[in-house]
Design goal:
Blueprint lengths: L44 E6 L19 H4 L1 E2 L1 E3 L5 E3 L2 E6 L5 E6 L13 H13 L10 E6 L2 E5 L7 H7 L1 E2 L2 H6 L12 E3 L9 E6 L13 E6 L3 H9 L5 E4 L1 H9 L3 E5 L2 E6 L14 H8 L4 H8 L4 E3 L23 H10 L6 E7 L8 H10 L3 E7 L5 H5 L8 E5 L4 H8 L14 H12 L2 H17 L3 E7 L1 E5 L23
Parallel strand pairs: 1-12, 17-18
Antiparallel strand pairs: 2-9, 3-4, 5-6, 6-8, 7-8, 10-11, 11-12, 13-21, 14-21, 15-19, 15-20, 16-20
């Protein structure tokens, strides 16, 4: 339910093209035309690729990035679009109180979970209480839930929640009977459009779903069957798409030309920023990172133009701030304060007392875009004496370990959002999921108060002040804004992409 975009997997960004360390990049491959197969299209079976396995079925621990398994089996009270506008789902109507500390929702009648349990206010209360207790769900801490009747739920927090509707949209609902049983890695029990077919499912390989006959709105999901295949090899995924074995997969810049010349549909999205997150800006784990000159030096060793043109094969633009262009926190015309200059970076390192550099661990995961990016970053940091030790993370606990604070400078193609309040919450506030060491900063706390208490103009001014502050303090090393691509069979329609992070189509976007 935490959905870690938006929080972790959203945040995973998209795989990067596999270029060389000198940024020579790759070119397209085969020109074979993909024609699809009986596995997809029409009202039959929709087969999608995910590049990383899920961590289980706990609704409090579901990623939203390229995760089509969670919305297959679970439903939510509301559904938010790419602009964070809500629409009815399990709840028919809702109202946020004027203090933005609480929301009252009225549920649709007659809904049930796939085990026959009633989806009423008591069930909603059980789901939210479950997520509140999850160690990965700080966004839902200290909530209070009241159920005046079986169809009414009021959820409140002790303080103002500027993204309260987003929290409601992100929360998955599950059968209270199933939650109480404690076997959350078994067959999930939700009220979504599909149910898991355990007999045709192999953990880590393929997940098969059949239609839920009691789903509230079957027309929104036209396919009778859903199959999700885990494929960490992009080459294998693209070949499967071209030969009709699957209907859609995320692709990188390396596969763009091949997909285009093969006659596949390609959706283009712009929803992340490639960056280093220097979360140990107080230097508690790595003292050197507590030095502003060191953080600024790190920013200056990356040739962003070369990265955009060659490592991303022209499908990216240089970035000097982490917020999405066009959002209220983005500062238009901001000159890059840290242009590529290795010689000047060396001077800053020496001035900080680290002329000989230091060693830092950076985590790596397969299938999330680091295969070409991390070697390049390692090479460039070495120019100023910083030695990178790659730590490979894998298995069901990989994301939890990534976010544990053990690694003070993660490298990620991290999502940015349609509403910059979510960026600030996730990346700058003390309890932000990607502020992995949860270091407090009084200036950020002050500006956040201004955001909460100000009018629209004051809020925007405070958002941009946050942007200037974290840029000046070099909490991040933004590199590029890459374009993201989703390739799909021509027998599948994707009229729009409603993902808040613009990183992948949502399950309900496939028509």
């Amino acid at each position: 339910m935490q959905r870690k975009q938006q929080r972790a997997f959203i945040a995973l960004g998209l795989p990067l093209a596999t270029g060389s360390l000198v940024l020579t990049g790759c070119t397209g491959g085969s020109s074979t035309t993909g024609t699809g197969s009986s596995s997809g299209g029409g009202k039959g079976t929709l087969t999608l690729v995910e590049t990383a396995d899920i961590q289980g079925w706990d609704p409090a621990n579901q990623p939203s990035y390229q995760n089509w398994t969670a919305p297959a089996v679970f439903d939510s009270l509301l559904r938010c679009d790419e602009h964070n506008n809500p629409s009815p789902a399990v709840a028919q109507t809702w109202k946020v109180n004027k203090e933005s500390t609480g929301i009252t929702l009225h549920l649709k009648s007659g809904l049930k979970f796939s085990d026959g349990t009633a989806l009423d206010s008591a069930a909603v209360k059980a789901s939210f209480e479950h997520v509140e207790k999850s160690p990965n769900s700080s966004r839902y801490a200290n909530l209070k839930i009241t159920t005046p009747d079986s169809s009414t739920v009021t959820i409140t927090w002790p303080d103002q929640q500027p993204l309260i509707v987003r929290k409601i949209c992100d929360a998955w609902l599950a059968s209270p009977k199933w939650l109480a049983g404690g076997k959350l890695n078994g067959t999930p029990v939700g009220s979504g459009p599909y149910v898991l077919d355990s007999s045709a499912t192999t953990r880590g390989s393929v997940y098969t779903f059949t239609r839920n006959p009691s789903y509230r709105n079957p027309k929104a999901f036209p396919y009778q069957k859903l199959v999700v295949k885990i494929m960490t090899s992009e080459t294998a995924a693209v070949n499967a798409l071209k030969t009709g074995q699957v209907d859609g997969t995320l692709i990188t810049q390396a596969s763009y030309n091949e997909a285009k010349t093969s006659g596949l549909g390609i959706a283009t999205m712009s929803g992340n920023t490639t960056r280093l997150l220097i979360t140990d800006h107080l230097g508690k784990k790595v003292p050197a990172l507590g030095k502003l000159d060191v953080r600024r030096a790190i920013n200056m060793v990356f040739d962003k133009e070369a990265m955009a043109n060659k490592l991303y094969q022209g499908h990216a633009t240089p970035a000097s701030q982490i917020f999405r262009p066009g959002t209220s926190a983005y500062i238009k015309g901001l000159k890059d304060p840290y242009p590529y200059n290795v010689a000047e970076a060396k001077k800053l390192m020496a001035r900080a007392g680290y002329a000989n550099g230091f060693t830092v661990q950076i985590p790596y995961m397969q299938g999330v875009g680091l295969d070409a990016l991390l070697p390049y970053v390692t090479q460039q940091l070495k120019l100023i004496g910083i030695t990178v030790k790659q730590v490979t993370l894998s298995g069901p606990n990989a994301i939890s370990e990534l976010l544990s604070g053990k690694y003070p400078m993660p490298l990620w193609q991290l999502g940015n959002y349609g509403d910059p309040l979510q960026d600030i919450q996730d990346y700058a506030l003390q309890d932000g999921i990607w502020n992995v060491e949860h270091q407090k900063d009084t200036k950020i706390a002050e500006l956040w108060t201004q955001i909460l208490d100000g009018d629209k103009e004051q809020r925007i001014q405070a958002e941009q002040a946050v942007n200037r502050y974290i840029t000046d303090q070099a909490w991040f090393a933004p590199m590029v804004y890459p374009q993201n691509f989703y390739a799909y069979s021509k027998r599948v329609r994707i009229p729009e992409i409603t993902d808040f992070s613009q990183l992948n189509p949502q399950l309900w976007d496939f028509k």
